Amino acid sequence: MTHNPYLIHPAVIVDKKQESTDIVTFRLQLTHPVHRKSFRFEAGQFNMLYAFGVGEVAISIVSDPGEPEFLDHTIRVVGRITQVLGAMQPGESVGVRGPFGIGWPMKEAQGKDVVIVTGGLGCAPVVGAIEYMFRRREEYGAMTILHGVKTPHDLLYRERFDAWRHQPRTQVLLTSDEPGKTWHSHVSVVTELFDQLRLDPDNTLVMMCGPEIMMRIACNTLTHQGLRPDAMYVSLERHMECGIGLCGHCQLGPFFVCKDGPVMRLDRLVPFFGKVGV
To answer: Residue-wise pLDDT tens for the chain (278 aa)?
Structure first.
């Protein structure tokens, strides 16, 4: 089936998980068998999810691209459209338009050690990539997953983190800025965990997503530890309305994040990353 970026395909909600008071994960299945069979995506890409009669919003696909039968999306309920989506229940229908954007460099990562740095809900865009690599564990080197949250209440995917830390050649480090009495992991911002890394700069690839200020600090720190900018990839968050670079809402310098990203290699971003007004 030829990919038409304007077509909205109906999908049914087959499962819903309440991750926190304002965050839900939906498992969707495209309604038409032909669409289900032909739909393919890369880890790190996103769909435009459409609430019929309300509008659409860009949401990362968090499921394994090797299992396209079901499409998982984690949604933070913060605006008019996401409030409608967040209130929906299994059995109800939404529209799916996509997939869009550039995903994570899964082929480039093969044979290398992979360091994944995330913060807050920023872990969502990289979940599919992590699941993809674990299902093909022999193709990748050592994996280190660093994830930071403001409070323990903000920690999503608890079961996933527990499962990941039991994988071979894998280290999972969690940290919280404001820990409570039940928090038994690290207390710091996520970038302070870099002191515990033993990196081989010539054989390491970094995937990073989360608050932009965190990613800028992390990239600077890792650069000083010997990582090259062309070995670091970040997932950018911008207001994306069309998904195909027409509306201009997500422009960053010469790039449109919806089609040139959201995953971009750091060396391409250096002149624009963190700059105001570009």
So the answer is: 457 888 999 999 999 999 988 999 999 999 999 999 999 999 999 999 999 999 999 999 999 998 889 999 999 999 999 999 999 999 999 999 999 999 999 999 999 999 999 998 778 899 999 999 999 999 999 999 999 999 988 898 999 999 999 999 999 999 999 888 889 899 999 999 999 898 999 999 999 999 999 999 999 999 999 999 999 999 998 889 899 999 999 999 999 999 999 999 999 998 888 765 55
Rounded CA gap, 137 and 169, in Å? Answer: 9
- pTM, full prediction: 0.93
> How many CB atoms are located within 10 Å of the residue 23 CB?
19
Do the beta carbons of residue 51 and residue 84 sit within 8 Å?
yes
- Buried/exposed 63-72: b ≥16 CB within 10 Å, e otherwise: bbbeebebbb
> Quick one: tokens of 218?
């992390």
User: By C-alpha distance, which of 8, 87, 80 is closest to 48?
Assistant: 8
Give Cα 254 distance to the centre of its chain. Answer: 23
Question: One-letter amino acid identity for 13?
Answer: I
d(CA 206, CA 30): 32
State how beta strands 93-100 and 9-20 pair: antiparallel
User: For the stretch 230-251, what's the b/e string if a residue is b when 16 or more beta carbons lie within 10 angstroms of its beta carbon?
Assistant: ebbbbbbbbebebbebeeeebe
Q: How far apart are CA 43 and CA 33, in angstroms?
A: 22
φ, ψ (nearest 5 deg) of residue 219: -65, -40
